[in-house]
Amino acid sequence: MNIYRYPKEEELGALLKRPTRDAADLNATVAGVLDEVRRRGDEAVREYEQRFDHVSLDSLAVSDEEMAEAETLVDDALKEALQLAHRNIEKFHAAQRFESHKVEVTEGVTCWQQAVPIERVGLYIPGGTAPLFSTVLMLATPARIAGCDEIVLCTPPRRDGSVHPAILVAARIAGVNRIFKIGGVQAIGAMAYGTESVPKVYKIFGPGNQFVMCAKQQVSLSDVAIDMPAGPSEVEVLADETSNPAYVAADLLSQAEHGVDSQVLLVTDSESLIGKVEEQVDLQLARLPRHEIAAASLSSSKIILVKDSEEMMRITNLYAPEHLIIETKNYMELAQSVRNAGSVFLGSLTPESAGDYASGTNHTLPTNGYARAYSGVNLDSFIRKITFQHITPAGIRSIGPAVEQMAAGEQLDAHKNAMTLRLRETE
Questions:
Q1: Measuring CA to CA, which residue among 350, 322, 324, 345 is closest to residue 267?
Q2: When you count CB atoms within 10 A of the terminal residue's CB, does the N or C end of the chain come out lower?
Q3: Contact status, residue 261 vs residue 232, Cβ threshold 8 Å
Q4: How far is CA 304 from CA 248, 326, 333, in A?
Q5: Is 323 known to be catalytic?
Q6: Start-to-end C-alpha separation, the chain
Q7: Which candidate in 322, 327, 352, 363 is catalytic?
Q8: pTM of the model
């Protein structure tokens, strides 16, 4: 890992900048695939599955027989873990239900909001280097609580045409309606436009590689909503002389193993901790099955040595990490200063992996600095709030003259007339 000691204020912008890539070729490639799926539907999807996932599919949909078989292929211990995680995710997200209140803003004018679920949502679950069955729970559980009528899931098939059984079991637990064996850009296109097999959805959720994320952003311009823009996953760890070096190293590595482009950042005010963490990273890295991926990520990751906790928090809020782990002795105090982060993990016994799987919070979070403006996925992500208003004769008399004045000031005479007619009737 690259070490930076006591960086100056004017150096922080460049130091905390995420790597950029030339997106011109990426955008063109993705646009071409999306256009084919829009024009040719299932036929194009099957062709791209053959080309990218190297599998020939007679049917894109997962059958009832495949769902039943998956139940026999997942051992009881994993099923119990999925059930526990689902219960915690369900409990946390159910507590986010919106309560509507009617407000009489002035005499005779009453306004309120009503929460209405998005009728049909699409979930993308990557299958690449790791089958993210945990993400099925994170997305489908709040969708079901919100009351979405139809939950559609797309995930890449394996070489034999099957879907990882744990993904199917998680989908059953969380209440997914329909599952399709489609990966990559073609999956995003199928859900955005609809095909003969895949219904068009109104909002797409879920992580993916750079091609998937580019596809989500392209279809969001005119065809469908998406959860959030995103880039490679990332973690920032805050540590001091009291932190356990083994824990810190484990937290850094748990993020680094996601992918070669994952972001890992350690910010500390303890010079002595740095060497201890590096030693632990080397020891733990050697034992990881995905050590090559984690090592590649660590090669571009950073350790920043600062003077005090105030500088820690200034860097944190500038960086706006997806995951923030605060392992300092005064972690509760520092938590009060967090302004920009996707999800925060407090104390030495709260690893990021707890939130990734079973604490109950959602692990679908803003990356690439988007935590400055975006929330992670939550119950509201699957809901629209519709406003209502009702006006009585007293209300017309109360706000009518103001409406007339404002409409006239904007030279919108039809707007003014709509109120003037009612004012005359209520005088």
A1: 324
A2: C
A3: yes
A4: 14, 15, 21
A5: yes
A6: 76
A7: 322
A8: 0.95
- Measured CA to CA, the distance from residue 128 to residue 111 in angstroms comes to 48
CA 312, 323, 173: angle at the middle one, nearest 5? 160
38 membership: H or E segment, kind and range:
helix 24-40
Q: Which of 323, 327, 352, 363 is catalytic?
A: 323
Which string of DSSP letters, residue by residue, matches 274-333?
Answer: HHHHHHHHHHHHTT-TTHHHHHHHHHT-EEEE-SSHHHHHHHHHHH--SEEEE-STTHHH
What whole-number distance in Å separates Cα of residue 134 and Cα of residue 293? Answer: 20
Tens-digit pLDDT profile for the chain (427 aa)? 899 999 999 999 999 988 776 778 899 999 999 999 999 999 999 999 999 999 999 999 999 999 999 999 999 999 999 999 999 999 999 999 999 999 999 999 999 999 999 999 999 999 866 789 999 999 999 999 999 999 999 999 999 999 999 999 999 999 999 999 999 999 999 999 999 999 999 999 999 888 999 999 999 999 999 999 887 899 999 999 999 999 999 999 999 998 888 889 999 999 999 999 999 999 999 999 999 999 999 988 999 999 999 999 999 999 999 999 999 999 999 999 999 999 999 999 999 999 999 999 999 999 999 999 999 999 999 999 999 999 999 999 999 999 999 999 999 999 999 999 999 999 8
Tokens describing residue 206:
């879920």
The phi, psi pair for 326, rounded to 5°, reads -110, 105
319-346: b (≥16 Cβ within 10 Å) or e: bbbbbbbbbbeebeebbeebebbbbbbb
And the tokens for 248?
Answer: 């810190």
Q: Tell me if 362 sits within 8 A of 377, measured CB to CB.
A: yes
Q: List, as one string, the DSSP characters of 179-202.
A: EEE--HHHHHHHHHH--SSSPP-S
